């Protein structure tokens, strides 16, 4: 049943944004930094940042009325193979993007520019009960709603930290390790990347990321991490981190790639999600005996829920055709089955420390709002139904002695089929978001299947093959 609250979410957001004390806080920060321009930004289903730039003198107008964009922008204004604009077509209405005032930040590379993250709504003039409701295809807004509902039902919040691996190319960055060795962790290679990591860390700290450790992991691969937090904030910060890396690449004349598997002979770019569940300031996954790795009952059931839905979540965690090249390269720590282990880097879920689960499926192109939403649904299913994950995996998941475990989908097409067949996973996104994601990914897979690749030219293109 539709409630008054549902119909007036846009009005409630306007009321928050016109609180004079909140607006004055933003104005003061803008004046202090000399901000002249503002980005009002949101994130598409594929993780791209879109938005509008507005002169800062129009702040009062925009915090009350927002900005408007065509809703097909959330599908990257992409057409399918038949020329149809996905996400509603050319005649679709615009959405209203309302800035969240607490996300205001000044860009450290140009302090004349600030930005907000926005929540998206159906425009107020939309006929009937739809007007002013949260936009169903807003992945960021959906995560906030899913997480809040999870907390109301369970009394828990999900805290997470991401491990974004990225590939950098440019003059002087190539590593030349000895045969059969890896350049991972070598400080000499970190020195090659010193201009990169120093700028990324400095910009990250300026934009609210509590930067912690990082390392050089594989040829051209750098990972820089920040402190874990409430999953909603972690998702925003992953988007900010990507924006920072693109800016640093522009400044230094390098190229940064988020491609999950950039080359045949290199490890893939993952974005492992480290998860913990909290009731207030108590981590309910942590065992009081910190001398040994051990699962609490809550942790066991959380893992059980994750594994029960891992194959269906794979389309979200590996959202591109290229993502599955990373899983195929099984000799280099990428998971292949829905299994778990005690500090076992070959498993989909790893108990990496007391009270912390590492989920290894997500890659560098994951949309963190989608990934955290489906993880919340899977975890809640595990807690509610007390799902047992079975015994821990010892050794790799590919040995004959491994406990039975479902194999991951190994193509995007197969993954989408698993995704749409799981009501727990799709329920976390809702019907409109699920449908748009399915259409986007089905079209991507179809386009790939109809494309002729370099591998095919090499294998079949020569006379006499």
UniProtKB/TrEMBL annotation:
The biased composition feature labelled Basic and acidic residues covers 1-19
* Region forming the signal peptide: none
Stretches the record annotates as Disordered: 1-23
Q: Which domain of life is it from?
A: Bacteria
Q: What class of enzyme is it?
A: ligase
Q: Which residues form the GS catalytic domain?
A: 139-465
**EC number(s) from the headed UniProt entry:** 6.3.1.2
InterPro entries hit by this protein: Gln_synt_N_sf, Gln_synth/guanido_kin_cat_dom, Gln_synth_cat_dom
Identify its protein family. Belongs to the glutamine synthetase family.
The cross-references to PANTHER family, in alphabetical order and at most eight, read:
GLUTAMINE SYNTHETASE, LENGSIN
In Swiss-Prot or TrEMBL terms, this protein is called glutamine synthetase
Identify the species of origin: Streptomyces stramineus
């Amino acid at each position: 049943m539709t409630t008054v609250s549902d119909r007036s979410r846009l009005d409630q957001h306007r009321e928050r944004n016109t609180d004079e004390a909140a607006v004055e806080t933003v104005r003061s920060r803008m004046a202090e930094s000399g901000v002249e321009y503002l980005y009002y930004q949101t994130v598409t289903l594929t993780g791209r940042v879109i938005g509008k730039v507005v002169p800062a003198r129009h702040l009062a107008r925009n915090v009350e009325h927002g900005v408007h964009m065509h809703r097909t922008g959330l599908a990257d204004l992409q057409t399918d193979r038949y020329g149809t604009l996905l996400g509603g077509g050319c005649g679709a209405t615009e959405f209203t993007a309302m800035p969240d005032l607490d996300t205001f930040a000044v860009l450290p590379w140009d302090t004349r520019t600030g930005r907000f993250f926005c929540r998206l709504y159906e425009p107020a003039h939309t006929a009937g009960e739809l007007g002013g409701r949260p936009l169903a295809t807003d992945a960021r807004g959906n995560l906030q709603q899913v997480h809040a509902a999870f907390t109301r039902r369970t009394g828990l919040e999900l805290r997470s930290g991401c491990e974004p691996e990225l590939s950098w190319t440019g003059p002087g960055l190539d590593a030349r390790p000895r045969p059969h060795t890896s350049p991972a962790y070598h400080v000499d290679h970190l020195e090659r990347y010193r201009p990169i990591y120093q700028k990324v860390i400095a910009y990250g700290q300026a934009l609210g990321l509590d930067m912690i450790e990082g390392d050089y992991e594989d040829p051209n691969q750098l990972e820089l991490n920040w402190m874990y937090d409430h999953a909603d904030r972690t998702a925003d910060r992953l988007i900010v981190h990507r924006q920072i890396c693109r800016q640093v690449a522009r400044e230094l004349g390098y190229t940064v790639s988020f491609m999950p598997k950039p080359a045949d002979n290199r490890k893939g770019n993952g974005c492992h999600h480290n998860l913990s569940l909290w009731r207030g300031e108590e981590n309910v996954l942590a065992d009081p005996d910190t001398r040994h790795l051990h699962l609490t009952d809550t942790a066991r059931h959380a893992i059980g829920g994750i594994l029960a839905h891992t194959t269906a979540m794979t389309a979200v965690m590996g959202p591109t055709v290229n993502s599955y090249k990373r899983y195929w390269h099984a000799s280099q720590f990428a998971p292949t089955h829905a299994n778990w282990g005690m500090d076992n880097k070959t498993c989909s879920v790893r108990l990496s420390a007391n009270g912390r689960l590492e989920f290894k499926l997500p890659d560098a192109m994951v949309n963190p709002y989608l990934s955290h939403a489906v993880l919340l649904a899977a975890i809640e299913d595990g807690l509610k139904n007390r799902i047992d994950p079975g015994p821990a995996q010892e050794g790799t998941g590919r040995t004959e002695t491994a406990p039975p475990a479902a194999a991951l989908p190994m193509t995007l097409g197969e993954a989408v089929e698993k995704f749409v067949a799981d009501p727990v996973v799709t329920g976390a996104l809702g019907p409109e978001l699920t449908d748009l994601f399915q259409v986007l990914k089905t079209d991507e897979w179809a386009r790939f299947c109809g494309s002729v690749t370099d591998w095919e030219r090499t294998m079949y293109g020569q006379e006499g093959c």
